[in-house]
Design a protein that fits this description.
Shape of chain A: globular
Distance between the termini of chain A: 18 Å
Strand content of chain A: 15-25%
Oligomer: homotetramer
Largest interface: A-B, 55 and 55 residues
Radius of gyration of chain A: 20 Å
Strand order of the largest sheet of chain A: 2-8-7-6-5-3-4
Largest sheet of chain A: 7 strands, mixed
Chain lengths: 344, 344, 344, 344
């Protein structure tokens, strides 16, 4: 079986493994203060053009989100997020477990807007009994979104402006950031992400690493004592070198972007194959995930050779099916899938 | 410099790396349900002689502790632990962050006793206003303890009995379990650990793995819905294979115990070297950590070649210094240290 | 100005004050174990026909809700509730502050249905990755709802059945229970409430008491150690007598129901006055709250003499206005309002 | 039986009841913004000579402590407190339930010192791995302490200085503040309390009120959004007037101090009676609690007429027994006790 069901079916990029093996017996301090972490930090700061940014490495996305969000919010504050946002749906209430409500905004094509933020805050502040409701304390977005869509630079600027008008830090979940920044449709750069947000993370787990996310804090007021809060959540990796090495390799010679670009190219090819076949796509993803609306017969045919993810029922006779590519997707498997789609 | 400061200065055992590299492009499901995890689980169940035990893999010790403890306790309950216990001292209040108080019992040589548990519970139940105090809800011990000491089988049985007399689950933090079970002084087996506790973890991070701990749940009533609580704490690794592979390798051909045994041998040799020199040792560790009481001059001499950990001031002129060995410690480095101790 | 804005503008029923004054210097034990509390408990058990029910007195509704809900749920569980439910909207995230997500169900006329619960649970259980989402752990409803509507007995039975099909305790917020049980439209009795739920509270604050709610636990498995969890949330009143006396008075000679009945009669009269005037009502409340859809001119006229609550904008030219009556509402004020409505 | 077991055996001062009855049907806004609350606030500000202080009314001590402490601390911080402090012992882990560790300092005579705070903070900051431990974030003391003792002005200044040297807010639990400020031994005034702390509460429950504590925030940076956090903890009383009226009455014509003074006089008389009899006292309380070390025979004799509290076993043949007086203690009961002590 060939897996297109998610973007973490393979382990890690060979160059990463090579470096881990090579440095294996090197004796290094724990908890993220070794020279590989330092080097990775410097490369990420350079890539973001933020030499003063703090960079912390954590193991996974939910862990990074809950640590970041609980560090930013005051106890009575909540986080505004798309109702389809990862923290709203797929983290088993990890944010609530830290005491904070996720305040859902109805997303369109996965996206929320600056005006939705403005309206929510305006309405909150206009309420004379507002202390009976959760105060919006920050905004969470995913770039790309959970369904592969992207904010334009204009949308992102507007969202960032809205946040700052109401004193809300903007946090960007970049679990698939590499696939977003290498989309043919993107007009946002890593530098823009760093400029327009207060904190964001560069996803490693889904973008070439064995595991690991690099949290970047650009807002000075959010940096203080951050290592305490990482440790408090059991998120300070003893052998921090493992995360440092991975990001050090990924941010050497543009590797992170090169491998993500290839996955996006494959994904677009798959989308085009479906469209050429007259199969309707759900959402307009131009990143590494594609959502095709398939009949039961089409699903059955493809299921003989491929593992995909059933996203949700579309109607009585159709289902939305997700196909993901990743840094690890093989050319030959894509070619096979393209052929099989054409033959549907 | 040669590092003896902690037991995670190297990365992971070469056999682990080999297997990770070898399986790298194998397409596998995420979140710990792949065949490597299944195989590792079966081996651990067999090693514990508990075919019905649930085994979950997590990344680190604090993460494992906070997940396990918050799963066991009711909201108003606390966890009894040695006042020197890892959860009481060195986890930045991770247990409190989940809403629970750590109830410290004064440890002697790192150990607590069944009678301390009995007395605490008896006193609690005898208090007519007991609902104004935290109810003891479980007991936490470390095996070996944070200072390298071991419970005898008799002590462990007594502690286990005390727990069960008061309906308290016994949880054992086995961050360094391998070094405990291979001590020359141990009379406890892995099977005993599994028999006498309700939940425990087999430490990987400090015992040969890149990272990872295997949580073993033997008490039927504590198994339900455990994966939810792992995910809720951001502790469900996407590429769970990485943990499965490591424990699968460690529990193949007795590797886990063999590599730990070697480290313990080195440690005992270091202890004997200090003792031969007339240097007093702090505590009677027979595992992989040794605590020597050194003068400033002795410290200075050793600091030229070795990285050790200053544990705490002993008196005005002496400091307690920790030397750790691990699966990764090199024979030649130990020989050198032994020579240098002899020359002090 | 005459206040119809909420149901807690006066203090407490005169008979309550009388009894508090009369017993003032009586020396009594603290924390709810005095004879007034015992007597009140017995009367409530009798009124519910549940002699084995546990009854605990707390001071306010949010306090009671957060204590009850955090006692019922496991850490990774959430509470299903109407999206307009008090816990979802107007408690500043008090439930989330205890670590639990409120899982909103779209309400119609303030009500949710058994089938909504069934569908949610079915969908959850059918999800192969359900441990990535919050597990529904209980259902919360308000009786009457926040907008004054009532579940019929049939609806309540269906909801209760749905809960028990999926092993979910049903919790009923009875902040305005007295007004619900004395509605001309009600076919549910206090006994039904006790039979069909696992835990519920009888509201005092809005129904004649100075403050106080009586939490009734009928499900045996939810009773254990409840006083600990009350104290843990700072909700164990030192002079518990104050709550005991109030419920003892309210449940003597049908007082609770008599005073609520009068308020409901006034409320219905106000509704009829609006309807007679051709003014549209929002929702079909038959309890102590009425929501009239008024023009700006009508609002302005009434605002000269009355304090009401602006609920929300209805359209560009109309606003939904809430008028509440209570046990403390005076006949003469109602007559005046009826006259003024007629004159609009 | 005559009760001396605690200081909340009677309900509330008659003048308070009078005012509650008198104002009962007055229609007032909820949640603490009525004119009685405003008046009480102004009187308290005046009494503290802090016209800019924020004053919030809550119902009980544990509630006030958990609200205040969780508002002050960052998630990874803990609160330094005497190991005998109320939050450390008798609040069922209410502070931990908000995610924070209580960091106990060994008390002498109920008191902690500025140097203990300095030493703890110094040690924390000197630790190179301090992010693995809970950061001290504030200091909690009780005035008077749980065993009736008092800080001198010099001690309080030193403690306050220590706090401010390390940027820690000082919070004072004044559950029995009235009895402390009217002790014959006190050299601290209400104004001093307000000057030397950042936040403190004036206890009502134990000092004449039916219930209620007045939290005073003098540190500007701690005032923001405080009503949200009160509501979040279910601590915003609907009929806030009840708290406002009580403090308005208590701070009229020196009533609070007059009634507490009388209780302290009685308490000192009881102490002297024991001492005259050669009975040893435990601790040197000069407030409203006295702790006598009694033989079993003495206890039995007194238990025929009096309810007292068994504090703890002193030795095999003696027990520490607490006698409390309060605003509600009757002269004749004290006389009787004095006679009976003399007759022991």
């Amino acid at each position: 079986m060939i897996h297109f069901n998610c973007d973490y079916v393979e382990a890690g990029h060979p160059k990463i493994l090579e470096k881990i093996v090579e440095s294996n017996m090197e004796q290094l301090p724990g908890y993220g203060v070794d020279h590989y972490c330092d080097s990775a930090r410097a490369k990420i700061q350079a890539a973001c053009k933020k030499t003063n940014a703090d960079v912390h490495f954590m193991v996974g996305g939910t862990q990074t989100n809950l640590t970041a969000i609980s560090a930013i919010l005051r106890p009575y504050q909540g986080v505004l997020a798309a109702d389809e946002g990862h923290i709203a749906c797929h983290e088993t209430g990890a944010i609530e477990a830290t005491g904070h409500k996720v305040l859902p905004l109805p997303a369109v094509n996965g996206l929320i807007t600056g005006d939705q933020v403005r309206e929510y805050c305006h309405h909150h502040l206009a309420d004379t009994m507002r202390e009976h409701t959760v105060q919006p304390g920050m905004v969470y977005i995913s770039f790309p979104t959970e369904i592969g869509t992207l904010y334009t630079k204009e949308q992102l600027i507007d969202l960032s402006n809205a946040c700052h008008e109401y004193d809300l830090p903007l946090y960007i979940d970049g679990a698939r950031l590499g696939y977003g920044l290498t989309s043919p449709d993107v007009d946002v750069t890593l530098e823009d992400i760093a400029d327009l947000s207060d904190m964001f993370y560069i996803g490693g787990t889904k973008c070439g690493a064995l595991m690991g996310e690099a949290l970047v804090i650009t807002n000075e007021s959010l940096k203080k004592d951050f290592r305490y809060i990482i440790k408090e959540h059991g998120a300070l990796l003893a052998k921090g070198r493992l995360l440092g090495i991975q990001f050090d390799v990924l941010f050497e010679d543009n590797l992170y972007f090169d491998i993500c670009k290839k996955a996006v190219d494959y994904s677009i090819a798959i989308r085009k194959a479906f469209e050429a076949k007259g199969i309707e796509m759900w959402g307009d993803s131009s990143t590494n995930q594609q959502f095709a609306i398939l009949t039961d017969a089409q699903m059955e045919t493809l299921s003989k050779k491929y593992v995909y993810q059933e996203w949700e029922k579309y109607d009585d006779t159709h289902t939305i099916i997700r196909f993901c590519t990743s840094w690890g997707t093989k050319e030959e498997n894509v070619q096979e899938l393209l052929k099989d789609i054409a033959a549907l």
